[in-house]
Amino acid sequence: MTRQETLANATRLGPVHLRVVDIPAALPVWRDAIGLSTLTRDSRIVELGVDGKTLIVLHAGATTVLPPKSRDLFHVAIHVTTRKELARVAARLRASGLRHGAQDHLISESLYVSDPSGNGIEICFDTPGRLASREETAGGGVSLVAKDGTRHSGLEPLDIDRLLQELGTADRVKVPLAADSFIGHIHMRARSPETLMAFYLGVLGFKPHIQSATFGLFDCGTGERPHMVAFNIWARDELKEPPLGAAGLEHFTIVLPTQEDLSAIARRLDDAHVPSLQINGVLDLSDPEGNRLRVVLASD
What is the CATH number of the domain that holds 267? Predict the structure, then answer.
């Protein structure tokens, strides 16, 4: 692929659409704990976001929860731009009583929770300045080397009590998520990530990042954001197809900066004989494992 055939650095992810069993049951997680605001709502669809910008769209109609270790959504990641904002979410999660987790990935700090339909959610604060290098280990894994020379797996627990020290006594916790929060990446469970990467890299035009069969993670992005779309095989032989009517990913959105970028993707899809539907400048298609995505132009 030539330089002109890779996605522009200004490419970003847009709204992520998810199927849920019960919208009212999902809202205490997405709205009250995460902090998204309700932008529009009817009996079948609710749009959630920040400062009028849609990040998540919940679709009613799923008949069963997405089972663990199903091929489909692993999590959608909402990124915040300050550690204090991450601490606010941590405080709301702790107060909610919801089961949640937290990990220090060295290049980021993350909180994890799922909605009642089994849709995984990550709230992420990027910390790339802590990383000095990434190295392959003798066993084929990945070792992260910090600026101070220490080595990390990237899977250490995050100290929540220390994180909460970011909040002073005057800081408000029950407030909407910050207006500059955004969809930073989406992560799926996969059967054949090598096949998926051939599509996301060779057809859509993403750039490779981690491609490790031994570690079980494949991801891709742009020069500016290398980790945007990820697939793991951590469930390996236990991975199952989601049952008919299950919650999970409806589709995610890739936002392109120019018409030239959109036309280039359409041309590569045609060349690769990948079925797609283009209406009014919007491309709808599926990847080789059936994950649906929509490619659109930036509106501003």
Answer: 3.10.180.10
